[in-house]
Amino acid sequence: MSSTRPDPRTDDDEIITWWGLVIEGYHVTQGKLMAAIAEEFDLAPASFDILLRLVRSPEHRMPMTKLAHEAALSSGGFTKVADRMVKAGLIRREPCEDDRRVTYAALTDHGLDIAQRSRKSAAEVLRQRVLAPLGETDSAALAEAMRTLREANS
Q: What Gene3D superfamilies is this protein classified in (predicted)?
């Protein structure tokens, strides 16, 4: 993506329409993805997000406060999701050996299996819903544009 200065002639309506299309495209695609994951694995979006973060983390575990922050959940909201995931046998809480203030969320064997299978299923949905209509070049450009926005607005 080009990092040129914005054109001051871009009219208000046009830029608002562009952003609306980004949001609408995201919502409809995310809805299809989450519906497929819920149907196949009975996972809520927050639980799926947490599983993905854990399966990609060293030792399949992360400090719970860091995980809550990365998943954009409040402490209380994360605790509720974590409680449901523990009850479902997807994660367990592990105390830190070096710092008793830290508790890890770690995948159980069952959680690892579900995380790996749901990640594979999500990738297939995204191949159909993003890669097929956009192609590899535009998909990569979209990801890079979103990365740029994330960094510029963090």
A: Winged helix-like DNA-binding domain superfamily/Winged helix DNA-binding domain
Burial of 101 (0-12, 13-18, 19+ CB in 10 A): exposed
Three-state SS for 95?
strand
CA atoms within 13 A on the CB side of 129: 18
Q: Tens of pLDDT along the chain (154 residues)? A: 555 666 767 889 999 999 999 999 999 999 999 999 999 999 999 999 999 999 999 999 999 999 999 999 988 899 999 999 999 999 999 999 999 899 999 999 999 999 999 999 999 999 999 999 999 999 999 999 999 999 999 8
* Entry pTM: 0.85
